[in-house]
Amino acid sequence: MTKYQFIIASILFFAFSNTNAQEIISLETAVKVALENNYEIKIASNNSLINATNVTVGNAGMLPTVAATITDNNRVQNSSQTLQNGTTNSLDNAKNNSLNYGVNLDWTVFDGFKMFAKLDQLKELQKLGEAQLKQTILTKISAVTSTYFDLVQQQQQLKALDSTIVISNQRLALAQNRFTIGKASKLEVLNAQVDLNTDKVSLLRQKDLYANTKILFNQILARDTKTDFKVIDTIKVDANLVLNELTSLAEKQNPQLEAQIIALKVAELQLKQVRANRYPSLKLSTGYNLANTQASLGFATATSAKGFNYGFSAALNIFDGLSQNRNEKIAHLQIDNSKLILEEQKLALQSQLATSFQTYTTNLELISLEEKNEAIAKQNLAITLDKFKIGTITTLEFRAAQLNYVNAKVRNSNAQFQAKLSEIALKELAGIINLN
Questions:
Q1: Which helix (H) or strand (E) is 96 found in, with range?
Q2: Residues 6+ apart with CB under 8 A from 241
Q3: Got the DSSP string for 32-73?
Q4: Distance (Å, rounded) from C-alpha 238 to C-alpha 215?
Q5: What pLDDT sits at residue 299?
Q6: DSSP states along 358-386
Q7: Where are the beta strands (DSSP E) in 225-381?
Q8: 53-87: string of b/e by CB count within 10 Å (b at 16+)?
Q9: Do 56 and 47 contact (CB within 8 A), yes or no?
Q10: DSSP state of 225
Q11: Does domain 3-37+112-280+321-429 have CATH number 1.20.1600.10?
Q12: Which of 50, 58, 91, 363 might form a disulfide with 419, Cβ 3.0–4.6 angstroms?
């Protein structure tokens, strides 16, 4: 099981079938589809697998290299040889060829511990890839969740607008009846009709926004943008988040902070590799080779040799134009930069948590207040409607009560949505992957 598959399995506890038209899609299903289809996650998963594949002792330079070689050289040339006694031998189109083949092994047995630092660095790069994958998954889950509850909020607003149209239709019917029996003027009917049309325009605009958000949601899920669906009709906000607990979790599992900690370790291991150049290096070599040579002219027309060869070589850098000192100084500066970036990241994370938590607590208070406002506005509308039916209040007063109720429902829905966004942001900063 890959790291990508493991993270998905840890998030999702059961599988869901593909949704049909207008079927209610749950948040769990939406996240599952996004994790399976999203291109960014697939790319990040492949990059993580690349880093994991690179973690081998061979890639760190700890293993020997074995190579089989063969070399075949052939020549055709006019040759002439003059011996010491003055005799001259010559031959046109003389053929000469040599064939060498064998197997050779080279092994660096000591390089100042550079290979060990390289292996540790490869392991840290693997962790870095996993942290980047986690960040990609967290970001995508947040995007899916935010857009999902945006759709929930818009559905709630559609219901509010539907209800106000029902009320506006009742008002128009009452106005027409009152006009028919001579208890109201034509102006009251026209005003009721205008307000009804205004409500219909608001409903159409909300439907357009809802449809476009559904297209965006399908795009985030990386599926056909024409797929039709509905979402649940309630927003449940986790009101039990604690700043100290979130801060503690963020210090341990925030992917961006984790990645910067790993980057610092990588820089420190890079310095170890640079320092290794101050030590001598020792290489062993051995092999088995065969050589055949044939010549048309000369003292020996054919020679052959075969057998083992072995040896070692050692090298120590004595002076390289002060490049070693320069490289070590650069490595130290890179470590200092990594430390500064890490401290900056910690401070930024603390600031984001504090501001997001303040917004979160404010939104929780707004939910409580807007729920009360909606209840009061609903009660006020019911009383106003009864009075309007018996003609004891004006149409303007009734319309004001109607708009107050619709606005109260919309504000209540928006307060819940904003609180949910604050919750999502806090959990993303804390590195929490769950759908509660």
A1: strand 88-110
A2: 357, 360, 423, 426, 427
A3: HHHHHH-HHHHHHHHHHHHHHHT--TTTTT-S-EEEEEEEEE
A4: 28
A5: 58
A6: HHHHHHHHHHHHHHHHHHHHHHHHHHHHH
A7: 281-295, 302-315
A8: eebeeeebebeeeeeeeeeeeeeeeebeeeeeeee
A9: no
A10: T
A11: yes
A12: 363
Predicted TM-score (pTM) of this structure: 0.79
**CB of 295 closer than 8 Å to CB of 94:** yes
The answer to whether 281 and 273 are in contact (CB under 8 A) is: no
Residue 291: exposed, middle, or buried by beta-carbon count in 10 A (0-12, 13-18, 19+)?
Answer: middle
pLDDT < 70 stretches in the chain: 1-22, 78-79, 81-84, 86, 91, 94, 296-301, 435-436
Angle CA(36)–CA(37)–CA(41) in degrees, nearest 5?
Answer: 80
Instruction: Specify the pLDDT at position 379.
Output: 94
How many other CB atoms sit within 10 Å of the CB of residue 107? Answer: 16
Q: Using the 8-state DSSP alphabet, how is residue 24 labeled?
A: B
Whose tokens are 């080279």? That residue is 106
- Which among 277, 259, 328 has a CA at the least distance from the CA of 51? 259
pLDDT the model gives residue 87: 73
Q: What is the pLDDT of residue 8?
A: 44
In this predicted structure, what is the pLDDT of residue 23? 81
At 204, is the secondary structure helix, strand, or coil? helix
**Model pLDDT, residue 140:** 92
